[in-house]
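Archive record:
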Amino acid sequence: MIEEGIAGKLDIQDLPNSSTTFRIADFGCSVGPNTFIAMKNIIQALDLKYNSHYHQTAGGLVSTDNVNTTPDYHVSFSDNTFNDFNTLFASLPERKYLVSGVPGSFYNRLFPRDSLHFVHTSSALHFLSGVLKEVVDINSPAWNNGRIHYTNAPDEVAAAYTAQHSVDMKAFLCARAQEIVCGGLMVMLIPAIPDGTSPSLRHPGILSDLLGSCLMDMAKMGLVDEDKVDLFNLPVYSTSPKEVKDAVENNGCFSIERIELNNSSNIAQIYGDHERAVGEGIIKEYFGNDITEKLFELYPKKLADSLSILASGKSTLLFVLLKRNKATAAE
């Protein structure tokens, strides 16, 4: 779908400052290898686009042999400051692009204005900008006692997560609108749920619920303080197509070129990605190494004991292709 988007929606002739250097950013890159695969596919699609454009402008009569028809590609890998960029750079494959690393939260602006031609983010936008204060406040109606996620939680908890996601999406789109040139593209791949669907019926919610169950089991065994568990919530939210559409329309700087919710069948990979994402980042930062290691000894056992629950759920990934409007200015 990314290749189709580049072929059909990227107008390189009208793209500012792209004749010599084409700038790409991958937000939420982690340490690879998925980001490298994505960049390889994007570069290949761009090569085809530039070669096709060269043939068209030359009337199809000029061979591309010994002619440089493509610009330099500059890829910026971006993730939070706790990301292991050393491992990322040490794992870089042979490539046709220049590389830089940009640490920081993608809910803030990280690049100069009008500097990016293509933005990619995959399985990252379901992470909120931080833990919600109201869900860990004992005096709040949204206090999420005994759980670490909004799955199967009271309505007040779910409403707090939804409100924070709305704020975060607004910030993300505003930052990207300032960074992406007019006519530039942005691809977002987001773990999501269909409109009107309960998160308890989808794998992200089920997995978070099982992870919370592991922590509560550890608290009962005296391995971790229960109060500490009550003060922890996963800042992870499964959005819906309507929520994303509304956020884009409210921003006003992008046109939706394609939005599609697809089933994901690689459940084993989903399990692995979920464990790494939370285990190497948020949980370890809050609970420390020892608790985290014990937690992820118990977690696979909990998964194995819950196969019937997992089999009843589904995983869906939202594909969104946006194009930066030419007539709107980002604030």
User: Anything to note?
Assistant: The domain at 2-324 is CATH 3.40.50.150 (Rossmann fold). Residues 155-179 form the longest helix (25 residues). The chain has a mean pLDDT of 87. The beta strands are 21-27, 72-79, 98-103, 116-122, 180-192, 254-263, 316-324.
